[in-house]
Structures are given as C-alpha cells and as structure tokens.
Amino acid sequence: MTDFRQIENNLKKEAKRLLEAGEVAVVLAYGRGYDEKHPMPFAAKAIAHVESLVFNEYCNFNMARYLMRYPWGTKIAIAAKAADSRAIIQLVQEEKVRREDLVIMGIPAYGMKNQKTNEVIDSKTTGGLYNPVIYDILLGEEIHGQKIISPYEVLAEYEAMDKEERWAFWKKEFDKCIRCYACRKACPMCYCDPCFIDQNKPRWADKAPQSPGNMMYHLTRFHHLAGRCIDCGECSRACPVDIPLYLFHKKVAKECEEMFGQAAGMKLEDKPALVDFRVEDSDKILE
Amino acid sequence: MLKKISINKISELAAALMDKGLLLAPVKEISGYNFVEIKDPKQVDLDFHNTIASPKAAFFPHKEDFIKYETGKPIDTASVVALNLPPAFLFGARPCDVKSFEIMDIHFNASGIVDPFWKQRRETAVIFGYAFDLEKPAQPEEFYQTLGIGAADPEGSDVFMVKKGGDLLLNSVTPKGEKILAELKVLNEGKAADKKYYEEYIKKGKEYKTRSMCLEPGAITKKLEDLFYNTDFWTRVSSACISCGVCTFVCPTCYCFDICDDTLFAQGIRRRVWDACMFTDFTLEASGHNPRTHVYQRLRQKINHKYSYHVRKYGVISCVGCGRCTKHCPVNIDIYSLIEDAMKA
Questions:
Q1: How far apart are CA A184 and CA A65, in angstroms?
Q2: The dihedral of CA B8, B12, B14, B17: what is its sign?
Q3: Residue A28: what pLDDT?
Q4: Domain count, chain A
Q5: Which domain holds residue A279?
Q6: Do A185 and B53 touch (CB under 8 A)?
Q7: B66 to chain A, minimum CA–CA distance in Å?
Q8: Is A68 exposed, middle or buried (0-12, 13-18, 19+ CB in 10 A)?
Q9: Which of A150, A204, B81, B124 maximizes the CB count within 10 A of its CB?
Q10: Residue ranges per domain, chain B?
Q11: pLDDT by 10-residue block (mean), chain B, 345 residues
C-alpha cells in the first residue's frame, strides 16, 4: 500500500492541478483539525487552501455526504476511499449527483482507525473493500493480496441471538440514544428534507429521548436505508454514545444482497434494489 | 471542615448518601463515563477524567413533564405534574461543570424569570465538586484555563473533593456542605497535613495547563459583531459542520428547549425537551419561513450566542471550556480554534 504521507502529497498535487486548470470549483477532501488525530472534512476552493489538505489513518469521514451541498453543474473533485466511492455510485443511481460533475480521486487504503477508540476499522465498519470501486485518478497504488474479510463476518455474534434476544439488545442500545441525530447527519444516504422524524403533521414520534420515539426513529431509519447503506460505518463512529448501528445496517444489507443479488453502490448502471422490480426477484420477504 | 475517606471505601460513602436521598455520580458505561442515578453503591467510579454528557441534566433533564391531560376533555381536568424532590447529591462534578451551573442560574433563576423546576432542583441538591487530577495532563480538547477556570476551583460546590494518593479529601465550602459532612459517619477527620495538602492543591489548580489564549470578553464580543456579515468566514469555518445536535446536547451551558405535546391515543403530556440550534427545524416558523436555512447561519448563531450576545446581555461568556463539543463532534469542529480564527480574522 502507498503510505499515507505519499497519498497526502498526491492529494495536494492533484487538487492543485485541478483547481489551477479550472477543471473543478471545489475539492472535497480532508483538512487539518485541532491536532493530528482529528482531521476534518474540508472543502478546498482556492489554490491557497491546498496546503491545508491532509491524509492519515484518521481520515475516515465519508466525503460523499457533502456532495449534495453543491448545485448540479458544480464541478467537484472528491477524495474517495472504498466506502466513499460506493456512496458516490449510490447517489448517482438515486439521481442526487451527476457523474459528469465529479472527478473522483480514489484512495486505496487499509488500516484506517477510529479516532475515539484507535481500533482499526477495516471490514468492521467498512465494506471489506480496500480499493475504490470507481475513480478517475488514483492517489496510491491499488491494493492486492491483502486479506479480504467479509463485511458480514462481524455479524456472527449478532446472528447467533434469537428474536427475543435481538429485540432486547436493540431496546437496550436505543435507550442510550440522546437523539442528537449525528447518525443521520453523518450518513451520505440520509438526505431527506425534511426527515420523517422532524415532521410534525403527522408527528411520527416523540421528540424526547425515550424508548418508543427512539425505537421509531432508528428502526425507520434502518429500513429506509435497506439496500442503500454502503457500509461506511460513519453513523456508528459519529454516535456519541456508541450505539453499534452498523450491525443492523449490515444485517439488512446482507439480506438484501442475498435476495436481490446486488450490494448497494457497486455499479453505476444498477438501480437501487428496492426501487427496481424484476420478475425473478426473491419473494423471501413474503414467506 | 475537612474530612477524608479511602477511595477503596467510596461505595460506603455512596451508600451513606443514598440513605439520605438521590445520588447522581459518575458511572462507567460502554462508551465512557456519565452521571447517572445510582442504584447500587458499587457503581460509583471516580477513576474518570470527565463524563460524556455534562451534569446539567441533574437540574435540567433532557425531558421534563409539565402537564398531563386528556384530549377532548375540559381544561380543568388537566393536572400539573408535581415536583416532589428528595434531596439529591451530585457527586464528582468537575470545577468547569460546577461553574456552568452559575451561568445557567442566570437564565433559569436570576434574570427575572424563575423556572420553578430548575430552582427546586438546585435548592435540594448538594454539589460535591471534584478537582481534576493535577498529576495527569489535560485532554487536548479542554480549554477552561482560557475562561479563567482552574482545575481545582472549589467555588460553586457545597463540598469540594481532592484526591490525595489513595484517599479522598472532602472539604466543606458552604454551610449546606458542612452540615452534610458532619452527618456522614463513614468519613474520618482530616489531619493538619491533609488540610495543608488540600490548600496547596487548590492553589496548584490555578496553574494547571489546558489550552489557553488571552480572551477578553469585551474584545471577542466586538470582534464577533464585526464579523457577523462576513459570510466567507462563517462559510469557511462551518464547511465541515453536519448540523447534528451533539455539541449542544453534551454542552453544560446550552439551555434551549422545545415545548412538545406528546399524545398517545387520548393521553397527552405537555413536556419540555432539549432542542439544538444546530437543527434545521430549530427556527422553522409556523408560516414555513426559516430564517436560518444555511449551516453557516446556525453555527454563527451558536458561537455568537455563547461569546457575543451572552456577554452583551449578562456580562459573561456562556462557555466553561470543558471541550465536550470538540471531543464529541463527528467532524472535529473545534470551538477553541474557531474563536482563535475569529480573533485573527
């Protein structure tokens, strides 16, 4: 793997070139934060901003989340690791973003770390991929030969639980929720405006952080992301109380993949599984 | 009055306090420490730096029921939820968090409008402040020194606690604190050496280093007023912000709330629930108009409220430098760097 320092240099070089040539109006990547361990999502709009770009093992934000802030036609360069590239594809499929507006700067990487716990997040909360699925420029060499771990491997413990145990597990986890909505705000696929939970006519759930409302919010969000979650794990990392949201998302993603034979955000020409109808689609859900 | 107890026997102290009322103390949860109502004295764990959420919920709960009613029934059938509070003990609050109660008092008690819920909770509570461990360095996000708060300031606490090796020294700061210390039989008398240690610790706390800059309230207020229409500045500093509510919910001095009517079938409850100025619907008006549709406007509001409007109106900055907003921000927006940036802009 190309080391992070080298990737950072390549990122700066490419960002500078693209901005200088006027090929893009903005470069979405990572910038300096208050220390090394805490970089920030950053939008470089001028050559002077390029020096602030960084890349290290803590740059795990999904930059695709920021794409929809810019109107169609804005040329955007975006730094994309494996999961981010899937988010881009999914957003293109959902017609939220146009492929021709983007210059995707792919970053092949493993060994990315959770800022809070320092644990390596490969495969646990990213899709088990190391190379971006789609890119225009590559900022490091493609990774081959690194051990591939199924993104669903972490589900073993969860799947061993029976229905009652799972219900109890989620009830306990959702009791921790403080309803700050960091999960939906960090999610590149959560772009509904307004989100159902913010509507007040009808009002779908209490605003108070208590069991029925928390349950309503999370279960609805989980299902709304069925076949759309690209497994970047940002929701779980954004959560201040560490609710393992990724477990549910992975479980649904796994079932979707089994039923419809496609994972979210893998091919530009796919349609989102739950939007597409095919005669040969699985009826398992009705059984 | 100075008392002491071995830290190993902290659960005995916890049990003694539980006999007298509610005990809120730090407990280790999966994601970190938090103040919770103690059910089992063994839960109390003082081996923490600071909690995830601030202890403001002890006086200003995330949700508070006011009125119960039945839909379709006449208004006189509705009942006000009575607040019959037992004495409460907030155990182990850090000096910066204790300072925040003083700021919150302005809004809920001292500025003319009295919130009976806040007032009652404050009056029934005994605060056991707890000095930061001066042997250990400050966390990178903290900056209470900037706001003139020491790591071992006893002001605001009723009883102030300091760690001395394997012992916990407890000193009374107010008559309320003195009364409770006299009643607690599990405590031992402090010796002259303990008294000396305690006093030196308080002094040393003033010098404890966190991130620090020279911040004169009048100067930052003026600066932020001048910057208000500088959209380029606000857009730049808010470019990463995702408009979630983490910063405001963990903040010890954020006090915005929403009044909601939650009904289930015919049973209704009118309650107060925390709200966050970072949410898009915070300023959404009944007409559908929203004066703050952009992220930069919301972040600008938050910073100005704390460092400008609050100073203009009440003379103090509404921030205690605990650094929780920075620590828990999913995109690492740092309020300290932002203020530094503003001063330079």
A1: 10
A2: negative
A3: 97
A4: 2
A5: 153-286
A6: no
A7: 13
A8: middle
A9: B124
A10: 2-207, 217-344
A11: 94 96 93 93 94 95 94 92 89 97 94 90 96 95 95 96 95 96 94 95 95 92 96 94 96 95 89 95 93 96 96 95 96 96 92
DSSP symbol at B106: I
Tokens of A234: 């940002």
How much is the ipTM here?
Answer: 0.93
Phi and psi torsions of A241, nearest 5°: -115, 15
Q: Do A133 and A29 fall within a single domain?
A: yes
- pLDDT, residue B41, reads 95
| Token pair belonging to A285 | 């859900």
Given an 8 Å threshold on Cβ–Cβ distance, is A182 in contact with B330?
yes
Residue of A34, A115, A181 lying closest to B334 (CB–CB)? A34
More confident residue, A104 or A283: A104
d(CA A130, CA B182): 63
Residue closest to A229 by CA, chosen among A141, A122, A152: A152
- Which among A114, A103, A101 is positioned nearest to A79, based on CA atoms? A103
Yes or no, beta carbons of B52 and A240 under 8 Å apart: yes
For residues A114-140, b (16+ Cβ closer than 10 Å) or e, as one string? bbeeeeebbbbbbbbbbbbbbbebbbb
Give the orientation angle of helix B217-227 with respect to helix B335-344, to 10 degrees.
80
Is residue A114 in a domain?
A: yes
User: What is the layout of strands, in order, in the sheet containing B22-29?
Assistant: B32-37, B22-29, B88-93, B125-130, B159-164, B167-172, B2-6, B188-189
